[in-house]
Every structure is written in C-alpha cells, then in structure tokens.
Amino acid sequence: MPDQDRPWELRGFLERLDAWADLESPPADLRLLVTAWIMTRYEDPYQGVRRESGFPNLWFGPVPQSDDGRGLIVACSYWIEETR
What Å distances lie between residue 29 and 3, 18, 23, 56, CA to CA? Predict the structure, then answer.
C-alpha cells in the first residue's frame, strides 16, 4: 500500500518473476539478480528505465549485470500509472 514516503505500490512483479523463471529456467544467480533489481523498484520505479515512446505509462529497461556472456540480457517493462 502506498504511504507518504513512497506514493506508489508494486503490483504483479513477483508473479511475473515466477512466470519468467518457469518459462526460461534461469540459473539461480540470475534469478537472484533479477529479484534484487525488482526490489529496487520499491525505492524508485523510474531508476534506470525509460518511458517507451507511444505508450504514456509504459517503462522499459535492462536489468544491470544480467548479460549472460552470449549477448543476452534480461529486460523488464512495466506500467507506471501516475495519479494527480
């Protein structure tokens, strides 16, 4: 639930993380890295991501240090619905 210090809440991130892990079967260290990155969204959902053009509420960005050595990375997109 949002509070005064953090006027947002995360919804569905952990469910999507589990779905990704079930589909891709990432190594444990990569799953931990992605999980830790998701937890940073609690502090600042805008950090290290950019707004996707053509979609006013869609944000997208790579998970730092998720390169698998073959040129593949983990990226995440999510909606930020700003209220006024």
Answer: 32, 15, 16, 33
